[in-house]
Design goal:
The chain is of the alpha/beta class. It has helices spanning 7-12, 17-27, 36-44, 64-73, 84-96, 134-143, 165-174, 181-190, 202-215, 223-241, and strands at residues 54-58, 76-81, 103-107, 119-125, 145-158, 194-200, 245-253. The chain starts with 6 loop residues before the first helix and ends with a strand. The structure holds S-adenosylmethionine.
Length: 254
């Protein structure tokens, strides 16, 4: 399996320490994905939770979901992320929240990292857009689940039509690999998952981004940082309204 040597690029470009501060200000403390804590709680409500279950959090970022799974759902979480900036900060916060016994934070690439055991649940939010070898990724995730285990993730997707030049250059700038919601569903089935649910939640994505924009003036960010985020958020809303950018919610079992 080819490794994803994207880690330093992520730290130097998209997930700089300053960039993370901006993302957190708009998403919520400890979160770098749409809707922050509130949306994470809504997604968690889709599942039945069992105290003591083992969870792999792929691309844990600053750890928000991992902390919630440990403190609110009683899970034992193994959290992995390719970005040093993310995982070093997440590990500090984990210690500060007194969750080190329940959450293990590791720096690594999900494509090559040797996992310590299989898990009851794999959770991931807005991570697989960074990973080009989706078929290889889904095989690894399938093999990392116990029989009966569940994979739950959300991700940026694309629409079915030929992309505009603007959309293509956005995808290229961030090095993303975006597929349609249906293509992800098929890839999951091809990797051997069953009970595949692939839902297009783009309207929800648009609503979340409008809500975050409304909250932007209440953050402690400088005017310049707010202006930069506003431009980015309006672009995301525009791409989603034009149907080029989609948001998928996925669940599957082994
Ligand atoms: C948009 S952030 C989401 C972080 C977190 N899931 C959240 O919801 O706040 C994407 C994360 O995926 C991580 N990532 C990207 N490729 C990865 C890989 N191959 N293995 C592990 N983590 C990866 C990035 O470093 C980044 O922290």
């Amino acid at each position: 399996m080819a490794s994803n040597d994207n880690g330093p690029a992520l730290d130097d470009h998209q997930y700089t320490v300053a960039g993370l501060r901006s993302y957190e200000a708009i998403y919520a403390r400890d979160f770098v994905s749409p809707g922050g804590r509130r949306t994470t709680a809504e997604i968690f409500d889709e599942l039945t939770w069992r105290p003591g279950q083992t969870v792999l959090d792929v691309g844990c970022g600053l750890g928000g979901a991992a902390f919630m799974m440990a403190s609110e759902r009683g899970s034992e979480v193994y959290a992995i992320d390719l970005s040093r900036n993310m995982v070093d900060e997440a590990a500090k916060r984990c210690h500060g929240y007194g969750l080190s016994a329940q959450v293990t934070m590791v720096h690594g690439d999900i494509l090559t990292h040797e996992l310590p055991h299989q898990f009851d649940l794999i959770h991931s939010r807005e991570v697989f857009l960074h990973i080009h070898d989706k078929a290889g990724l889904f095989r690894i995730l399938r093999d990392s689940l116990k029989p009966g285990g569940t994979l739950l993730f959300t991700d940026y997707c694309c629409g079915p039509d030929q992309p505009s030049e603007a959309f293509q250059s956005y995808v290229t700038e961030f090095g993303y690999d975006l597929r349609t919601v249906d293509e992800i569903g098929t890839l999951l089935t091809d990797a051997g998952f069953g009970g595949v649910s692939a839902m297009d939640q783009t309207q929800r994505f648009i609503d979340i981004h409008h809500r975050e924009l409304e909250e932007l003036p209440n953050t402690d960010l400088s005017q310049a940082d707010q202006d930069e985020l506003r431009v980015g958020w309006l672009s995301k809303i525009d791409r989603a309204e034009r149907g080029e950018q989609r948001w998928g919610w996925f669940q599957a079992t082994v």
